[in-house]
Task: inverse folding
């Protein structure tokens, strides 16, 4: 776990003014969720209808933040039909994480300055509490609103409307919707407690985990240049956002769990909507680029293991392994250079003429061949690492 080290801006600066609305909101909803909700459940019981509304609202809130606020608006990883955007906006407002403008401008700053203790609004280097919730309960210089990095979103009339009427819309969705459904089903309080309060507290903290735990707990298969981690447990709680190491390295990809088997319902939703024509232009990172990042990390790890083994293993054996890794690395660099060359050729061809179908497939085949080469190399390196461990 990381700690705020030689920071000029301490995680808890007692002179930073408190944000009372947030403090009251977070503590009151949390207190009700851990006292009144279980008490009501034990004394009155919750009907199935209240549980269903709770589940639907929780999923709708989380997906609107992940697929809407995050992957659509903050990162523009795809385009969506207005009806989808409207739903994201309604349930994103209900998630009570501020307007899309505020959320996205903060998030873009987080990516640009990740881990910076002065510029990242929720830098994990300032500790768990700060990155989880602390950054919202005091007015820190790192959290000052600044919309210069969202010119695209400021042109969006739907988002402007949400920003302008945020408080009213947030109240209507958080109090109005659960109370209305509660009145219609005849279980006013039960619905309000589950689908209103408990839903809000869970959806808050599940999302907050991405800024805190997903920068502290998990693996870093793509890069160790920032604190972001891949963590399947968090992926389950956050509808796929737990693959945060991948996300910080390939933020323009509409997927966070890039492998087909990785739990990422948000990517399935976006891809599913494309199937019925409601989303389009889904951005994907080329397979080769992903493989290249994975391999570069494997080489770094192998080097570390080798350095560690140097004190115990026989010098001839170390020499042998070192040569082995060096030759693997050379063939890796060759593949990377070849890939760049093919890409360039393909692009010039594309510019010159409309690339014929057969030409396209030749290019694709050559690229696939290179991808396969890296895949095999990763397997060889894994075996090598196993020998060294
Ligand atoms: Zn992050
Ligand atoms: Zn992001």
Result:
């Amino acid at each position: 776990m990381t700690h705020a080290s030689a920071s000029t801006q301490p995680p808890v600066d007692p002179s930073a003014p408190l944000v009372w609305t947030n403090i009251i909101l977070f503590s009151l909803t949390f207190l009700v969720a851990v006292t009144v909700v279980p008490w009501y459940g034990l004394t009155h019981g919750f009907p199935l209808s209240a549980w269903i509304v709770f589940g639907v609202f929780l999923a709708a809130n989380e997906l609107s933040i992940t697929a809407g606020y995050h992957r659509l608006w903050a990162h523009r990883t795809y385009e969506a039909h207005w009806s989808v955007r409207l739903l994201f906006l309604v349930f994103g407002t209900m998630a009570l994480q501020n307007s899309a403008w505020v959320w996205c401008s903060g998030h873009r700053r987080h990516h640009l300055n990740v881990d910076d203790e002065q510029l990242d609004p929720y830098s994990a280097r300032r500790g768990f509490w700060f990155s989880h919730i602390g950054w919202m309960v005091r007015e820190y210089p790192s959290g000052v609103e600044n919309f210069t990095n969202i010119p695209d979103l400021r042109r969006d009339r739907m988002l402007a409307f949400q920003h302008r009427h945020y408080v009213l819309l947030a109240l209507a969705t958080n109090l109005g919707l659960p109370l209305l459904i509660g009145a219609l089903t005849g279980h006013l309080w039960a619905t309000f407690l589950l689908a209103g309060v408990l839903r809000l507290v869970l959806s808050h903290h599940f999302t907050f985990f991405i800024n805190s735990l997903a920068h502290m707990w998990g693996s870093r298969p793509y890069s160790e240049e920032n604190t972001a981690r891949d963590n399947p447990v968090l992926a389950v709680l956050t509808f796929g956002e737990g693959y945060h190491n991948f996300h910080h390295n390939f933020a323009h990809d509409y997927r966070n769990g890039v492998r087909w088997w990785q739990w990422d319902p948000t990517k399935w939703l976006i891809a599913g909507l494309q199937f019925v024509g409601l989303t389009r232009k889904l951005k994907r990172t080329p397979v080769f680029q992903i493989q290249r990042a994975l391999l570069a990390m494997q080489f770094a790890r192998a080097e570390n293991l080798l350095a560690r083994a140097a004190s115990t293993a026989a010098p001839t054996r170390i020499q042998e392994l070192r040569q082995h890794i060096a030759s693997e690395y050379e063939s890796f660099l060759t593949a990377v250079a070849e890939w760049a060359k093919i890409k360039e050729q393909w692009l010039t061809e594309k510019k010159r003429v409309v690339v014929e179908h057969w030409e396209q497939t030749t290019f694709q085949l050559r690229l696939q061949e290179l991808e396969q080469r890296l895949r095999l190399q990763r397997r060889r390196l894994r075996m090598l690492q196993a020998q060294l461990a």
User: Anything to note?
Assistant: The chain has two domains: 20-243+250-280, 287-388. The longest helix spans residues 315-352. Residues 70, 74-75, 107, 111, 247, 251 surround zinc ion (ligand 2) (CB under 6 Å). Residues 1-7 have pLDDT under 50 and may be disordered.
